[in-house]
């Protein structure tokens, strides 16, 4: 099958299909944050959601009109018009046009069972719905991707009708034809056989022109990635999937597995090599944004994907990495770990602190001290992968190079509920005592919650000493329960991301008290922000004591 320029178009549907995963929820800001990161990665299409299906998706597309993507095409998703209406009069399509995206993905029914049982209409009306919707949107100056829902099941049950739905979409003006294994039950040999038939049919209908076929697979049989790769081998030039394989039931094709396999193993071009080297970081950032623990054992991007433990493996990989590594971990932004070697642990520390402009050697006592402290903190629940600001402060503490801007002497948080009102509103107050250059400062503040009150009180205590704090603001706040079996006595890890409008940094706090964990993360976040202000603004008058 032909693949012009060996290019594969990656279509990310994390923001729509991925959010259907049970237990996964994202805010509007989360969606914008993820879209920006995907755009930077270099994917071709980003499906933002179904405008009109919920207020969040409609607002997302409005916001994106003021901050357009630089590389990817933003796509809005919708179904065909409803039965016995016209596309021009179906109100469902109004917000789709209001999204103002160049590309629209329309899904339609391929399986006759879904037409008669799901839509409760006739096979002829379903064809009319496909034709009318695509033609109408094309007439509104949109470019169309047609998602053939339940394609493979539909083809197996009624191949003639399934092919007719595709032919209808083609004649109406669709440019891409995405074959969906919606139930996730198709095996690779059937993917190959059926795509071959579709490829030749579309080519014939289109007067010999090479068709643009896409593949959308689900993982209910554990084969989403394998099926996507098989589809590419047989003519698909678009692969739809999600970061980390998020999705309904068992998930979607994991793009963090699909892209390295296509690009590094099969010779296709998905994104630029330097962008592929950002994949591990993006995978972990998205997992933090959606507040799900990263899969340490995920292929390619997992923390353990290139970890080696003991004996023959370790000695062999130290002599020649390809003995036990199928690719260079750096190619996808991961790194090798020798998990039982003190020397290897020191090497990891040395490599890490280079990012902070710090040069260490294995012989340095501080190097071993940092390693030991890191292990101790990780044992109680800290994770520095997504809290590099906290790790840098730890390093500078060990080196005697951590400026002392302030110390939190104590804090007190009080919450009261007003049961007289139907809303049951809760009032939160916080009192904080800080020490700055031997001067004690006691302040109090109210907030919408205990953490907000604590944050405001701490800033209020410090602002007169360090006016720069007015420029620091929280951009994300995540809580993770580490040992849920202990119930309300469980240890909590809080991860907070800050920004000053130019840079972002993240800190972590761990405690069996969520307020204490939050206080630790907020305190270190403000401290790191001040450290950065001193570092990047040599003329700054504010200095640590």
Please explain how this structure is put together.
The chain is of the alpha/beta class. The protein folds into two domains: 4-271, TIM Barrel; 407-536, Alpha-isopropylmalate synthase LeuA, regulatory domain (Double Stranded RNA Binding Domain, 2-Layer Sandwich), CATH 3.30.160.270. Helices cover 39% and strands 20% of the residues. The protein has 18 helices and 16 strands. The strands form four sheets. The protein has an eight-stranded parallel barrel, surrounded by eight helices. It has a three-stranded antiparallel β-sheet with strand order 11-12-13. Helix 13 links the parallel strand 9 (307-308) and strand 10. Helix 6 packs across helix 7. The chain is globular and about 80 Å long. The protein starts with 8 loop residues before the first strand and ends in a 9-residue tail after the last helix.
- Largest sheet data: 8 strands, parallel, barrel
What is the count of helical runs? 18
Low-confidence stretches: 340-344
Which architecture name of the largest domain does CATH use? Alpha-Beta Barrel
Distance between the termini: 68 Å
Strand content: 15-25%
**Topology, number of strands:** 16
Name the average pLDDT.
91
CATH topology of the largest domain: TIM Barrel
Q: Could you say which structural class the secondary elements and strand pairing correspond to? A: alpha/beta
By CATH, the superfamily of the largest domain comes out as Aldolase class I
* CATH class label of the largest domain: Alpha Beta
Number of domains: 2
- Order of neighbouring strands in the sheet with most strands: 1-2-3-4-5-6-7-8
